[in-house]
Amino acid sequence: MRLTRSFLPTLKETPAEAQIASHRLMLRAGLVRQTSAGIYAWLPLGLRVLRNIEQIVREEQDAAGAQEMLMPTLQSAELWEKSGRYEDYGKEMLRIVDRHDRRMLYGPTNEEMITDLLQGSIKSYRELPQILYHIQWKFRDEVRPRFGVMRGREFLMKDAYSFDLDYASAVVSYRKMMLAYMRTFQRIDLKAIPMVADTGPIGGDLSHEFIVLASTGESQVFYDGDFENIDWVNSEFDYEKSGDLDAFYNQMTSMYAATEEKHDLTAWSTVPKERKREGRGIEVGHIFYFGTRYSKAMGMSVAGPDGAQIIPEMGSYGIGVSRLVGAVIEAKHDEAGIIWPDAIAPYRASILNLKQGDATCDTICEDLYAKLGGNAIYDDRTDRAGVKFNDADLIGLPWQIIVGPRGAANGMVELKRRATGERAEVSLDSVLAKIN
Ligand code: ATP
Ligand code: MG
């Protein structure tokens, strides 16, 4: 992307409406713009990050055996009357009437719809278990939308739903999703702590929230430092082995984790001193098992081996995909701007031409840009070097390749790693190898 030809509206001033770092930086770096309260347009740069996060979420859901589908945003009120939630959901639900006076709603979640879809098609115990998911926009008319995309009204969620024949099998599905979540957040370079959570109005008794650590987060958390050290992505846990899932779950739940309200001083005192950690965090995911609450309400049952009808046991598993963009920035930024983790950065590198119009600088930059195959932002503006440095730090790509006339004449460029600030003079021949 050439800066002279792209829509990347950065701001020098701090927007007055933004109270937290991620919101300020998302506006300043030209990732999003608010179009009405709690509703955002994703601009080209922001959309690339959103898509990258979405893709990691997708790959880890697929690896756990969940199947992707896509349900619509608009739902019929009748579905929600069956579960009793049409009234219960209250004012957070956006209700719509179509031209034929049919009552519709913009989905805040999909338990009713997925259950209704499956109950029409799944008839036998042989067709279970199933885990299905989609990544779709949701609408919740939050009383106080704030913090940018962290608490929006329209937001992107991955929601998965599991259907099992009995409790034991539902627990296996739950553990698979929990492992998938730990792997997902690690790949996004976040430290996530699973907390036992209230089951809330949805009912049930098995529920965890995932809190990613960020010093500016809303909740105070107390946790075992091992959560930060275990490498879930390269672990040997196999989704198809129930023994592995048991071992994973036991390890996970044997470690202490609590928010301020639930902090248990007696249990905390048993955590070895050197492993005690305190911090702040942001909720990015929530998983829960709720038994037959929806399958029963929606009339779903399957024929068991002996012909008797079985009502499937369900769970649902959410990740706030758009909230994660904000959460990553809360966890990874400094005074100058965003510091994107490699795995989700919108582009790999910024190329800063310090003397646009200088034949050598231009040639080198064009060549690097071509070799990076579009995976770079080329700052080809005629602005001062200072402006380019500031914007590159603000946008926060993992690498900056700085091309100035003096080095260029000798076939050298400067390479800067955004995360550490380290700079090195490198030869043109080696710069791409260093980045890749
Ligand atoms: P919260 O307590 O933050 O309102 P919730 O309990 O309503 O969350 P869930 O229904 O479990 O959330 O939704 C799953 C995930 O969707 C949450 O963990 C969060 O990451 C995300 N999410 C929920 N509400 C919003 C919102 N208004 N804006 C952005 N993301 C959201
Ligand atoms: Mg909520």
Structure description:
This protein is an alpha+beta fold. The chain folds into two domains: 3-338, Bira Bifunctional Protein, Domain 2 (BirA Bifunctional Protein, domain 2, 2-Layer Sandwich); 349-435, Anticodon-binding domain (Rossmann fold, 3-Layer(aba) Sandwich), CATH 3.40.50.800. The chain has 15 helices and 23 strands. It has helices at 21-28, 44-63, 77-83, 85-88, 111-119, 167-187, 226-229, 242-254, 265-268, 293-297, 321-331, 359-371, 385-395, 405-409, 428-435, and strands at 32-36, 39-42, 67-68, 74-76, 94-97, 103-106, 130-139, 154-164, 192-196, 206-213, 219-224, 257-259, 276-291, 302-303, 309-310, 313-320, 333-334, 337-338, 349-353, 376-379, 399-403, 412-417, 423-427. Strands 3, 7, 8, 9, 10, 11, 12, 13 and 16 form a nine-stranded mixed beta sheet that branches. The mean pLDDT is 95. The structure holds adenosine-5'-triphosphate (ATP) and magnesium ion (MG). Adenosine-5'-triphosphate is lined by residues 140, 142, 151-152, 155, 157, 283-286, 318, 320, 322-323.
